[in-house]
Design goal:
This protein has 220 residues and is of the alpha/beta class. The chain has one domain: Rossmann fold (3-Layer(aba) Sandwich), CATH 3.40.50.1820. The chain contains 5 helices and 10 strands. An 8-stranded mixed β-sheet has the order 1-4-6-5-7-8-9-10, sandwiched between helices. Strands 2-3 form a two-stranded antiparallel ribbon. A hairpin with a 5-residue loop joins strand 2 and strand 3. Helix 1 crosses helix 5. The relative contact order is 0.16.
Length: 220
């Protein structure tokens, strides 16, 4: 893995977003990471996003993390989840431009970012990984709910924002959706981020295997 590099991400409504790319040396998949709620201190450097961004490139996953509009170096203003969906689509397209076409691309988010991820549907997305999504800013149902592409929700056993049983009830009828509850975890996953890295890696293993030979090879 090379050192993270700043990359340009420009939204369809003209905002330039702060973003970083960590390129895997033996690239087999890509992941876009959406951070927690901007109005509660969430940034692309928040704990869960940072843990995945720092660990996954060593396993062959190129990661792009970005700040939603109005956060740190990103232009614009908080938009109650509407403009943030535009931001997520722009980030997906920015990473997709850097990946060979067959390479699986996962849209991942934590908390508010998980909600935004599940509301974002793009042709290039292979799957969704939502960590402790409270499902407070999703549509009814979320855009990804009826999509056949795989979805993995990693919930915290002791989530302070929304109990895992409540989230499980909402997603019970969603297509292609797996739910894993992380024992002992709070919403912030302190001391449990290694388990999230493990879940993400196993999920990507399955995606790469399902995509077939050549899907995880480095382009060039």
């Amino acid at each position: 893995m090379t050192s993270p590099q700043a990359v340009p991400v420009v939204t369809s409504d003209g905002h330039r977003l702060e973003a970083e790319l960590a390129v895997a040396s033996e690239e087999r998949a890509g992941m876009v990471l959406c951070h927690p709620h901007p109005q509660y201190g969430g940034t692309m450097r928040s704990i869960v996003v940072s843990a995945l961004f720092e660990a996954l490139p060593a396993t062959g996953v190129t990661c792009l993390r970005f700040n939603f509009r109005g956060v740190e170096g990103s232009e614009g203003f908080y938009d109650e989840g509407r403009g943030e969906r535009v931001d997520a689509r722009a980030a997906v397209r920015a990473l997709a431009e850097r990946l060979p076409a067959p390479t699986p691309l996962v849209l991942c988010g934590w908390s508010f970012g998980g909600d935004i991820a599940l509301c974002t549907v793009e042709p290039r997305i292979s799957a969704w990984l939502a960590v402790a999504p409270p499902l407070h800013v999703v549509d009814e149902p979320a855009a990804a709910a009826d999509d056949e592409r795989p979805k993995l929700l990693a919930l915290a056993e002791h989530d302070e924002v929304r109990a895992p049983r409540d989230v499980q009830a909402v997603v019970a009828t969603w297509r292609s959706t797996e739910v894993v509850v992380v024992p002992g975890a709070s919403h912030f996953f302190v001391g449990r981020t290694a388990r999230l890295v493990e879940l993400a890696g196993t999920f990507i293993d399955r995606l790469v295997a399902a995509a077939g030979p050549g899907s995880g090879e480095q382009g060039g």
